[in-house]
Amino acid sequence: MKRNTLLFSFSPISGLHCKKEPECCANCKELIASISECGVCLEPLDRGITSCQTCGNLVCTSCAARLLKCPFCRITIDYSWQRNVALERIFTKLELPCRNFRFGCKVYLPKAKRDKHEDKCKFRQLKCPMHACPWTNSVLHLSEHLNQVHHLHLLKGNGVNIEISNFKTKVSESETKVHKYVILMNCYSQYFICKLCLYKKVLTMSFVQISNSSPFHFGVFVNIASNFKSMKGIVPIHYACPELHISCDALVTPWKSQDNCVKIYLNIRYMNAPIRFM
């Protein structure tokens, strides 16, 4: 027995409409288009649905938490707002568009698969990780923006070697001069930015994940070595990662006549992956 299947395609307004002729399935076209997105933020209604008991209009739970009155009938929400569990169950089964459909993504998936796709969607929007830069665009254009505006080059791969030559001289200069190093890395379909700063005889390191997936999945395995001393450690990556401060006195060679080179190896790994320094 052949099963009937509803097929939907991309719409720049609602993000969803039926692929069949309108006269063949007017019901599904009107119904899905009317309930596919929040009436306030226009995002897909797949992460909690609330409805007004007075007018029946739908908004997402995040918008409902900020509203004092229904934006459609102006009734006080305390008396009319209610979570719509029935529609939430329906939405978990429907193949709805990726929330980046307005930016060009045309993928349709059920909720269980759509969340994973959106974390790695190439059309997802990212803010520039550089301080005070207002740029926001698709992840596809991030590398080009950082290269042209901030003169940063994207490194593909989860490992990078950094060599700071004349380290002893730069430590002496750090009393009045700041030495900065910024590295942009692309691995595991995510983007990471590593910042190193040498100032006041302290080497400061910070690692930030600038993508949209969970911030606790990754960590940086750090190996710092000089011809005098070496040290290793693991730094978890967060969206707002605390800075790692290392005293340069532990890395500077004690011999006055000899300058030294410090090598830093950074390796981004899943936190549950085996620890290995190279």
Automatic annotation (TrEMBL):
Catalytic activity annotation: S-ubiquitinyl-[E2 ubiquitin-conjugating enzyme]-L-cysteine + [acceptor protein]-L-lysine = [E2 ubiquitin-conjugating enzyme]-L-cysteine + N(6)-ubiquitinyl-[acceptor protein]-L-lysine
Keywords: Metal-binding, Transferase, Ubl conjugation pathway, Zinc, Zinc-finger
PROSITE patterns: ZF_RING_2, ZF_SIAH
Gene Ontology biological process terms, A to Z: proteasome-mediated ubiquitin-dependent protein catabolic process; protein ubiquitination
Keyword Zinc: yes
GO cellular component: cytoplasm
Domain SIAH-type: 93-151
EC number: 2.3.2.27
Pfam families: Sina_ZnF
Source domain of life: Eukaryota
Enzyme kind, highest EC tier: transferase
Pathway membership, UniProt: Protein modification; protein ubiquitination
Gene Ontology molecular function, alphabetical: ubiquitin conjugating enzyme binding; ubiquitin protein ligase activity; zinc ion binding
Domain RING-type: 38-74
Homology family: Belongs to the SINA (Seven in absentia) family.
Protein name: RING-type E3 ubiquitin transferase
Organism: Diaphorina citri (Asian citrus psyllid)
